[in-house]
Amino acid sequence: MASDLIKIPKCMDYDDLAWERCENLFEPWKNKIFDREVLREIGATIDKYRGGVPDELFAPKRGAFNTWIRMKFKDGGSAVIRFPCPGASVFPEEKVKREIAVMRFLEHFTNIRVPHILHSGMTAESPCGLGPFIIMEYIDHDYDFIDALNIPGRSRQERPILNPDISSERLELVYRQMADILLQLSSHCFSEIGCISKANEDDEFDDKWVVKHRPLTFDMNELVQLGGFPAKLLPQHPFTTASSYYESLAEMHLAHLSSQRNDAIESAEDCRQKYIARCLFRKITREYQLCGDDSGPFKLFCDDFRPGNVLANAEFQMTGALDWEFTYAAPTGFAYSPPFWLILELPEHWANGLDDWIQNYEKVLPVFLRILREREQAAIDRHILKDTDRLSEPRKSWAFDMIYWAKIDRRFFGDGNLEDRLQLLTQEERDNMDAFIQRKLREKKERIYIGE
User: Which residues, if any, are the signal sequence (predicted)?
Assistant: First the structure.
């Protein structure tokens, strides 16, 4: 843990006015999608590309980023049309294009069952102009893996928490299947950091896949959505080294603190500590202290992969995996990091604080690592994984302060207090700090939302 002389600060909050703006964008769209004529056109669009005799069109359902509608057919099968939700998906057409590419890659090169894509299109082709869409096969299931791990009786409106009384058999069953997915993902490597595509996107028979686009991450979407972050300040291109990507992330953390108008700071002292943390993290990245495999190869990684993405039958055997947006070739450190979802909840949302979260996390981490080693060895023995693809050997922006002071600062700079840390900043960073703090305090009083 960080030195006792440095208090771990409260995480940055979401900008409530930005959140309200997102909800205001979604509401008229939601009302439109429930219109009878709109639903009729949606059904006709699904039928056009799936084929068969329609039986039933189910009511729309919403997830974190998407709304989907299922149509059941007389032959017993079903298809789903899925749209990014306005207000939640900040880059809807980019998101859909990148996810389609990943799903086709996974369908072709892995044993992970993903929904087969029947058709997709951008807003111009969309029924009633609802936005970019994917029509895909519906995968039958009884549960997802959150149902397997969550506290019994906890509603879907509540944030999930790993059942403390879960049986070892149930826990290991889910962890084993999740580990298999992670291993298959990370076994695919690329020479750059970013989103993948066919080398020749116009040739359906081309099997060469490369990084062609910027890494579109969960954090990038959330920064713009809930922080009012200027989209133009996000990464706009792929990266050839891990160090350049880490430095870009460090710049993004500082720009986030600078650009979020509301709910970013508690006080002048809180702002000062947040500013120092981000400058020091940038110093670490500029000095190449985070990079092991700087030049790659870089591993395929899903930024938002979690148990809720994995569908299961009544015995909690996986039937398929969904929602591959925010999947990209990432630095190896991302793939090697223990998954955040082992106890389902994120540390910044844990009611009893970071120390308690760590205690609970460390109870199950050895279980997951043991299972991961077992699944690695089994895959290596079957010659479907190379020994160099092992994961058992060797991040959100709002949680930055908690993680930095608890896990990063002391590791790189030793014991000390904030005054010691201040001396590590450049002269320019120290000169700019007071004006930065005063601006943030003025913004805190004004409490306004400035759109892009």
Answer: none
Q: Identify which of 5, 11, 99 has the alpha carbon closest to the alpha carbon of residue 399.
A: 11
> What is the DSSP pairing of strand 66-73 with strand 78-84?
antiparallel
- Reduced to 3 states (helix: H, G, I; strand: E, B; else coil), residue 69 is strand
Euclidean distance between CA atoms 197 and 211, whole angstroms: 6
- C-alpha 280/C-alpha 418 separation (Å) is 11
Question: Which domains, ranges and CATH numbers included, belong to the chain?
Answer: 34-138 (3.30.200.20), 140-446 (no CATH)
Closest CA to 134 of 80, 58, 85: 80
Closest of 102, 107, 130, 134 to residue 120, by C-alpha: 134
Give the list of residues 6+ apart from residue 319 with CB closer than 8 angstroms, or none. Answer: 113, 139, 140, 141, 311, 312, 313
Query: By the 8 A CB rule, do 88 and 225 touch?
Result: yes
DSSP codes, 18-30: HHHHHHHHHHHHH
3-state SS assignment for residue 79: strand
CA gap 361, 118 in Å, rounded: 40
Instruction: Determine the Cα–Cα distance for residues 152 and 378; give it in Å rounded to an integer.
Output: 32
62-89 pLDDT tens trace: 999 999 999 999 999 999 999 999 999 9
**pTM to 2 decimal places:** 0.90
CB 71: neighbour CB atoms within 10 A?
Answer: 24
